[in-house]
UniProtKB/TrEMBL annotation:
Signal peptide limits: none
Name the UniProt record assigns to this protein: 40S ribosomal protein S10
Location of the Plectin/eS10 N-terminal domain: 10-53
Keywords, comma-separated and alphabetical: Ribonucleoprotein, Ribosomal protein
Amino acid sequence: MIDVCAKSSSRRHLRVPLQGGVLVAQKDFYAPKHPELEQIPNWHVIKMMQSLKL
């Protein structure tokens, strides 16, 4: 399995949304940016959220 983004960057990316409460992402892997998190590609957000799934 390929590591999509480095562990250090994924922790940094998750810190901001999880402090604010709820985070949603449209399942669009080709969207250039996440609507609320402009510095992070949408597919990174989707994959990080999938990794948190129980």
